[in-house]
Amino acid sequence: MTTETGELRDLPTLTPGPAELADLELLLNGAFQPLTGFLGAVDAATVAAAGRLSDGTPWPVPVTLAVPEDLVKEERLILTDPEGVPLAVLTAAEAWKEPAPAPDADPLPEPAPSGWRMAGPVTPLRTPEHGPFRGLRVPPDEVRLELAGAPALAVATRTPLHRRQLGQLRQLAEKLGARVLVLPLLGEGGHDALVRAVLSVRRELPGDALVVPVPLAERHGRELLLTAHVAAAYGATHLFAPSFTAADEEAAPLTLAAPEPWAFDESLDVWRPTAKIDPDDVRDEPTDEELADLLDRGEEIPEWFTTPAVAEELRRAHPPRHRRGVTVFFTGLSGSGKSTLARGLSDMLVERGGRTVTLLDGDVVRRLLSAGLTFSREDRDLNIRRIGYVAAEITRHGGVAVCAPIAPYTATRAEVRRMVEAAGDFVLVHVSTPLAECERRDRKGLYAKARAGVIPEFTGISDPYEAPEDADLTIDTSGLSPHDAVTRVFDHLVAGGWVRTG
Ligand SMILES: Nc1ncnc2c1ncn2[C@@H]1O[C@H](COP(=O)(O)OS(=O)(=O)O)[C@@H](OP(=O)(O)O)[C@H]1O
Ligand SMILES: Nc1ncnc2c1ncn2[C@@H]1O[C@H](COP(=O)(O)OP(=O)(O)O)[C@@H](O)[C@H]1O
Known about the structure:
Elements: H1 3-9, E1 13-14, H2 18-29, E2 37-38, H3 41-50, E3 76-80, E4 86-91, E5 94-98, E6 115-124, H4 140-147, E7 152-157, H5 163-176, E8 179-184, H6 192-200, E9 210-211, H7 223-233, E10 238-240, H8 246-251, E11 255-257, E12 262-265, E13 270-273, E14 282-283, H9 288-296, H10 308-317, E15 326-332, H11 338-352, E16 357-361, H12 362-367, H13 377-396, E17 400-404, H14 410-421, E18 425-431, H15 435-441, H16 446-451, E19 473-475, H17 482-495
Helix pairs in contact: 6-10, 11-17, 13-14
Adenosine-5'-diphosphate binds near residues 339 and 441.
């Protein structure tokens, strides 16, 4: 082992979050040029405010790295992947704190989470080796070499290319005399279906088109400009951009190219420029909502709209609801009825058959998965994240996860919703039985102990419960039989299509 490696072994390590790891890959491979590291406080502020680094260089979005407080004094950090494999060394230039948003701040766009950040250049230790379609993830300099300075029209997309975009792309590429470079953008969660869908339409693209997946985390705002910077780093001269403003055009490092509007001509059964079609013969495309609805109900995706191969990928990624994974997450005070409802619902689902059901009850989880955790905020959050992780995996594999913890904090529940929705569907049920009724029931005698001060930090008595504002269903079980309460949840699942009756 070399001295350098020996030294590195002693450095503290940090595993960045999924979005930060994606940013790291793009910092390291040059897709985020001119950036070579995570931004400091001043740059992050000028970028957020004006789309420029503090030296005036245009850059659209803050690229920052969150660090726990105990690492802020370190001079160097090893950044690792989630399995702990070292990927890069960060040489700290500055540790800074993102302030908490003002209480009256506009909630949109969502502010960056508050907390410590570490800025500084990153140097690679090794290239990430795993992940689906890793072989296609050619670095920007190699793609630039392949394009050899000739005109190249990039299309950066988070959704499959349907027949309209394919026609527009062919027309625009021909007009510009450009090669086509498709950049499927991989955000959080599994995006293998997107890459397969793009590869499946390769034959509809010019023969020399390149497909290079890019791990670009989704941002709130300035996505077009960010993709323009990334596309330019890969050597594109033009970016396929159906709509943009004059300010976008001025700030973009390449030419934003608007395609001509296309539509499906019913009289001829072809897609072509709208200008050439009699308005009576224009057939409307399904909207995103209509498409999602067709998939939810397991209905045919029209072949005039997209190719059969893309439709197949869409169906695989979004199976009909009665086969899609779903997490039913009960939240509420102790004694509100969560366990009773969760058990009743699981039984009802098992009795019907056709779906695999896993019950993650609050008490049971605490005896196994979360044994040893306390009821401090940190431990409650960790407990809920663990439940969320398991529920998301069950959901990813098409099962039904039924969870019944107190889950008192809005932010942590939102985190679980995000995790699960990257894999399938999430149904939040607020068991809103009032505290007085829960305390009257006091099945385990815990409220009496909490009132007497024997149990500290007891939810509803000496610890907070943040009632959800995003519940899909709210049930107050006072004055309701357990059977009727369970039936309400079951009926919600039937109405939503997750369970089929008859
Ligand atoms: N301090 C304190 N506060 C709240 N609850 C307490 C506490 N101490 C023990 N218990 C018992 O633990 C059960 C709640 O655990 P959870 O894992 O669901 O809680 S949390 O989601 O992590 O907040 C809860 O079970 P349920 O009654 O099923 O909700 C209680 O029985
Ligand atoms: N409609 C109802 N739904 C659920 N529980 C009810 C209902 N009516 C009365 N209960 C009683 O309330 C208590 C709820 O306890 P439990 O389900 O363990 O709640 P939690 O898991 O939220 O602590 C049980 O004793 C249950 O029999």
